[in-house]
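Ticket closed. Logging final result for Cytochrome b561 and DOMON domain-containing protein.
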Amino acid sequence: MNAFASPASLTSVVPVFFLFLILFITHPVHSERCTLCSEAFMMTAKHRNVTCRRKLMTLDAELGWRVSSFNSQWTRIDVVFGARLRSDTGWLAWGVNPLPKPQMIGTRAVIGIRQPNGTLSTNTYNITSDTKMGCHLLPTAVDVEVRDTEASYIEEEQYFTLSATVIVPDSGYNISKLNHVWQVGEEADGMEPKKHPMTLQNFDSTETRNLWSGESEDVGRKNHQSYLRKVHGILNMIGWGTFLPIGVIIARYFRKHPFHLKNWWFKIHVMCQILGYFVGTAGWAIGLILGTKSPYYIFHVHRWLGIFIFTFTTLQMLALRLKPSVNDEYRKYWNMYHHLLGYALLAVIILNMFHGIAILKPDNAVWNWVYIGILVLLSGVALILEIHTWIKFLNDRNGSKK
Ligand code: HEM
Ligand SMILES: *[C@@H]1O[C@H](CO)[C@@H](O)[C@H](O)[C@H]1NC(C)=O
Ligand SMILES: *[C@@H]1O[C@H](CO)[C@@H](O)[C@H](O)[C@H]1NC(C)=O
Ligand SMILES: *[C@@H]1O[C@H](CO)[C@@H](O)[C@H](O)[C@H]1NC(C)=O
Ligand SMILES: *[C@@H]1O[C@H](CO)[C@@H](O)[C@H](O)[C@H]1NC(C)=O
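Final structure:
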């Protein structure tokens, strides 16, 4: 069977593969200065006289503002906020947060809602921990003053703009490090905005910005985080998503039927599982680090499935040391357990991979196609081998009948 790669040649291919991938993931530079703001946004920005304009890091949102002194204790911010809203009903929110770090809870927000009949309503809302837990979010007065609120929706571009004059007290809000939060939701009921989607873009829509200089404090950190996320995704896709299933295919089709690789199948199987396990664990560990870096949100399902996968693959790896010997009477049951857990793990891995990719909505298309490509390739190979096994089995049976 010299048509198959020996473990030695496989180990030399792997580093090259990694190098290629690392080169492939370059740091994304989130555009800062908004040189190409959308026309819809610029219309309102001109009308509102805002002097500073920036593209925000998520949700394709754009922010424009002008700061002026209101009186000795208050500062006036003329603000324009815009983003695409694709659904018929939905809402757009922008707000300031007096807490030490920008986050959803504590935000004093202006929210514009697009009603099903096309009318636009705007109001102020006090976002509290109750809101996050799912209590109705209804308009209230807030401790910043909001005047001249306007909303506009441009049908052709599906672009929603919100503009207002926000007057903030100097105690509590520091213009040179203002915590602000933005959000886009796709559901509303009258004056009540309903929960926004639960994707990364919706969670990363906070920052601390110096409104005098225009610079955001978070750009470096967020770029680093987005780099780590890519490494996390790639390592998991290679480790859990590629090597582990290849190892299973080797064990299923090269142990006895249809191909008999004598001692090789076991060596290749173990090597694939060890490689998959270590690469996957590295990706998993980066995932845990990413989790600690976002104190205000957790992707519960993705996280628990990841912990489950890690725990039970560790158990599978213990097979290297703990499996009963070939002659042991328990070996039959042990084999059954090892195989069943193996297939179950593949299913959970596939589930969690798609779960993780969905978190990246709406820019998850490339990830989706790459992973679907891997799955199609692997299951194609498995299908061919399965059919081959059956043909061989039937032929052998017919042969023995004659
Ligand atoms: C309308 C009702 C709303 C509900 C039910 C809701 C619910 C939630 C939930 C459950 C999370 C994720 C928590 C987690 O996974 O740990 C979250 C995160 C977040 N939401 Fe909301 N939300 C609402 C409105 C808003 C509004 C109006 C804004 C913006 C002004 C906003 C901004 C954020 C941000 C920035 C995050 C990221 C985590 C954080 O900073 O706390 N949300 N929301
Ligand atoms: C914008 O500035 C122009 C001229 O500087 C002024 O006439 C106009 O009233 C201002 N508009 C607003 C909304 O402040
Ligand atoms: C549209 O709906 C809103 C809320 O449901 C209502 O307040 C408003 O009067 C309606 N506008 C028109 C033009 O029907
Ligand atoms: C808004 O909510 C905060 C708690 O997050 C509370 O301290 C504050 O008094 C509320 N403001 C108003 C006007 O209700
Ligand atoms: C606002 O923040 C800047 C920069 O951190 C700091 O130098 C300044 O003292 C702060 N101003 C107030 C009023 O806290």
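The pocket of 2-acetamido-2-deoxy-beta-D-glucopyranose (ligand 2) is lined by residues 48-49 (CB under 6 Å). No further action required.
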